[in-house]
Amino acid sequence: MKLSDIQARCDRVPFFRHLGFSVTEANDTHFVARMPFEQRHIGNPVLDTYHGGIIASFMEAIASLTVLGDLASLPPKPINLTVDYLRPGLPGTLNTRAMVTRKGRRMSSVETVAWLEDEAKPVAKGLFHFLLV
Amino acid sequence: MSDTKDAERFAMIASVWNSRAKGLIAEMNLKIERANRQGVEIRMPFNPDFCLDEEGTMLHGGVLTALLDSAFGLANFLAIEDVQTMATLDLRVDYLRPASSRADVIVFAECYRQTRHIAFGSGKIWFDTGDCEEVARGSATFALTRGKGGLLDKMNIGGPGG
Fold first, then answer.
1. ipTM of model
2. How far apart are CA B84 and CA B118, in angstroms?
3. Do B65 and A15 touch (CB under 8 A)?
4. Any chain B CB within 8 A of the CB of A41?
5. What are the structural domains, with CATH classification, of chain A?
6. Chain B within 8 Å of A8 (Cβ-Cβ)?
7. Could you tell me if residue B125 is inside a domain?
8. Which structural domain range is residue B81 located in?
9. At what angle do helices B3-19 and B61-79 cross, to 10 degrees?
10. Is residue B37 predicted with pLDDT exceeding 60?
11. From the candidates A64, A85, A96, A130, which should be mutated to test the interface with B, based on the most B CB atoms within 10 A?
12. Are A132 and A76 in contact (CB under 8 A)?
């Protein structure tokens, strides 16, 4: 899959446009994307930090791309998620790496990590399950 | 605290939350339907920007997660009188049904247990369609600091009981 084709598919999803991320790396089991900070992403109105739901949504979006069969297929169905919030989501470009842990015929498990400037200092980690049928 | 004072405090928190909304909470255009120590019920109107498809037939799950996270925050403010700051430790969401409706979304959230340092929250989401079938369920834990001068004071609303 070419990055430009993946981005074009993402740009057809209204909520992905709302998040405003770009995919920077993509292969069969592993995606990376970056999302510039926007006012509409704020959760805490005093500290202007990212809304926890935006961080979770961004990670879920990139996780779902890793288990997308091909660009023409329907999006995988999310079953559930767990997010571990590790550091404050300070204003700044947020990055997410999503890695497929296990891809079966019906189910898939994907791990994600989100960071601001240093991947070794993650803002959040996530675990996402998808139904592929 | 008396019931009247409680009611005043809840009304004030709800009014600040509605009027000073910013960022995602403003985008979601939330309306508090019910707010007390037992929990909150919040309404989110349909928004095509939150959908998976251009036709607007299905909401993205992430919106439901964001909605639960927001509602947990408000439920904590109502249930914990001296909360100063709170940080989400973890959040778990089960997507029980496809979110395929253009009806308003309703979220219920409660803080069902608080200790000095931790708050435990639980919540659920359904569409306002009459059958009230649950679309998602979530739970979260929060790290608390307690004391004077909390987030609501910093939003300039202090006042008695705030």
1. 0.94
2. 13
3. no
4. yes
5. 3-131 (3.10.129.10)
6. no
7. yes
8. 3-154
9. 140
10. yes
11. A85
12. yes
